[in-house]
């Protein structure tokens, strides 16, 4: 562990369960890197992701954005391609980007949007986009004919959340420079979305554990009972 990490860890009681406000304060204090660290939220859920009816996935527009400039690739043709360009898409095209990704291993983007008629093309990228969490999905609003709205939401700070194989959601909720109030608003918006997305098949305790951390800092545990306080 680095010197800053060790010093930061001394500020945190590893046995304590903090309120969201207290935890965010500590995450900000322990972000000691020279760059503006991202504050990340980690939520362990009481679901079994191996079952399709216990998948938790969705998207939410954070009230204060993420503090990050997101590059968006849109698969569209004709009028929809022009609509995407007018709405601020970074890259717009069709088969040419299929080849670029497959043959050149090109991934100069963070989000992929596709019109429904292009999913036949995009589907051929499932093996490379899927593992990176980049595959467009109707549930997250990235498969749509309303590309202008999709782009507006993404550029405004829309984030996707989904459980991984260990039933944990990892999502950025802003930057250290946001301060406690803006981070708290983003935290609440995301937690409300996750709670609302609880699958009917999930039994027992749904929110098992919650923590926040900065990019280079230690995790700070939050009392799961108080996440929406």
UniProtKB/TrEMBL annotation:
<dbReference type="GO" id="GO:0000049">
    <property type="term" value="F:tRNA binding"/>
</dbReference>
<dbReference type="GO" id="GO:0003735">
    <property type="term" value="F:structural constituent of ribosome"/>
</dbReference>
<dbReference type="GO" id="GO:0015934">
    <property type="term" value="C:large ribosomal subunit"/>
</dbReference>
<dbReference type="GO" id="GO:0019843">
    <property type="term" value="F:rRNA binding"/>
</dbReference>
<keyword id="KW-0689">Ribosomal protein</keyword>
<dbReference type="InterPro" id="IPR016095">
    <property type="entry name" value="Ribosomal_uL1_3-a/b-sand"/>
</dbReference>
<dbReference type="InterPro" id="IPR023674">
    <property type="entry name" value="Ribosomal_uL1-like"/>
</dbReference>
<comment type="function">
    <text>Binds directly to 23S rRNA. The L1 stalk is quite mobile in the ribosome, and is involved in E site tRNA release.</text>
</comment>
<keyword id="KW-0678">Repressor</keyword>
<keyword id="KW-0699">rRNA-binding</keyword>
<dbReference type="InterPro" id="IPR005878">
    <property type="entry name" value="Ribosom_uL1_bac-type"/>
</dbReference>
<keyword id="KW-0694">RNA-binding</keyword>
<protein>
    <recommendedName>
        <fullName>Large ribosomal subunit protein uL1</fullName>
    </recommendedName>
</protein>
<dbReference type="Pfam" id="PF00687">
    <property type="entry name" value="Ribosomal_L1"/>
</dbReference>
<comment type="similarity">
    <text>Belongs to the universal ribosomal protein uL1 family.</text>
</comment>
<comment type="subunit">
    <text>Part of the 50S ribosomal subunit.</text>
</comment>
<keyword id="KW-0687">Ribonucleoprotein</keyword>
<keyword id="KW-0820">tRNA-binding</keyword>
<dbReference type="GO" id="GO:0006417">
    <property type="term" value="P:regulation of translation"/>
</dbReference>
<keyword id="KW-0810">Translation regulation</keyword>
<dbReference type="InterPro" id="IPR028364">
    <property type="entry name" value="Ribosomal_uL1/biogenesis"/>
</dbReference>
<comment type="function">
    <text>Protein L1 is also a translational repressor protein, it controls the translation of the L11 operon by binding to its mRNA.</text>
</comment>
<dbReference type="GO" id="GO:0006412">
    <property type="term" value="P:translation"/>
</dbReference>
<dbReference type="InterPro" id="IPR023673">
    <property type="entry name" value="Ribosomal_uL1_CS"/>
</dbReference>
<dbReference type="InterPro" id="IPR002143">
    <property type="entry name" value="Ribosomal_uL1"/>
</dbReference>
